From TrEMBL:
GO terms for molecular function: oxidoreductase activity, acting on the CH-OH group of donors, NAD or NADP as acceptor. This is NAD(P)-dependent dehydrogenase, short-chain alcohol dehydrogenase family. Pfam families: adh_short_C2. Keywords: Oxidoreductase. The keyword Cytoplasm does not apply. Gene3D superfamilies: NAD(P)-binding Rossmann-like Domain. SUPFAM superfamilies: NAD(P)-binding Rossmann-fold domains (SSF51735). It comes from the Bacteria. It comes from Jiangella alkaliphila. Belongs to the short-chain dehydrogenases/reductases (SDR) family.
Length: 257
């Protein structure tokens, strides 16, 4: 039985959904936060079936300070202050940099980076006030460390680079409180977001088979297992770290000689 309340942003689909359901299967109290209220409600219902002690669905726009604060108030009242938080909500918009609309750039940064800050701030406030430790995990990306050969990734890469720097800094600041802050780095994972830009799923899978050392796309449940480990006491001596879950892609040189 998981002793903590687990809160997940972007819980309505993809990796966030997989993490919430994995926590539910361990008997956790869970909070599904998503800008899509219907998706959050659906996964919260599935969480109860999967074994969650309690579950709540909350609409949350992570780019809005008031929305995030209200969401955490709702979570605390419904299922208790979260001791494990996965700041996962994110979007991706691709375009050549010289043609990138400023509004799209700002929206990517607002969701992917400001959203992580606002989510973590609310979680950390409650953990510090409670005087107990906890665990926060943020979603970074290989784009924070290496360029994407497909190009057009500048806004997403910048936002995720910011997340990785944020994680390292926050981990040092909150280690004295017994609060751990880490990042998961998912590679190409078989979710709706992977093809949201209109990419051909079959082409992506074929490319994965030749470019990713393990020869396939990742599954959301595989990334969820990594996140759950970071959220749990099993990783009690890990903070300020990045757990790469990418099928070996970042370990591979671009050169074949």
């Amino acid at each position: 039985m998981w002793a903590e309340t687990v809160a997940v942003t972007g819980a309505g689909s993809g990796i966030g959904r997989a993490v919430l359901l994995a926590a539910a299967a361990r008997g956790a109290r869970v909070a599904a936060l998503d800008v899509n209220e219907a998706a959050a409600a659906s996964v919260a219902e599935q969480a109860l079936t999967a074994g969650a002690a309690r579950a709540v669905a909350v609409r949350c726009d992570v780019a809005s300070e008031s929305s995030v604060a209200a969401a955490f108030d709702t979570v605390s009242a419904a299922v208790g202050d979260p001791g494990a938080v996965y700041a996962n909500a994110g979007i991706e918009v691709n375009a050549a940099l010289h043609e990138f609309p400023a509004g799209d750039w700002e929206r990517v940064v607002a969701v992917n980076l400001v959203g992580v800050f606002l989510t973590c701030r609310e979680a950390l406030r409650r953990l510090v006030d409670a005087g107990r430790g906890g665990s926060v995990v943020c979603t970074s990306s290989p784009a924070a460390f290496v360029g994407h050969s497909g190009g057009g990734n500048s806004a997403y890469a910048a936002s995720k680079g910011g997340v990785s720097a944020f994680v390292r800094s926050a981990a040092l600041d909150y280690a004295p409180y017994g609060i751990r802050v880490n990042a998961v780095v998912p590679g190409a994972t078989d979710t709706a977001m992977l093809t949201a830009g209109g990419a051909d799923p079959d082409r992506l899978r074929a490319a994965a088979a030749t470019q990713i050392p393990l020869g396939r796309l990742g599954r959301p449940d595989e990334v969820a297992a990594a996140v759950l480990w970071l959220l749990s006491g099993e990783s009690s001596y890990v903070t300020g770290s990045h757990l790469v879950c990418d099928g070996g892609l970042m370990a591979k040189s671009a050169n074949d000689f």
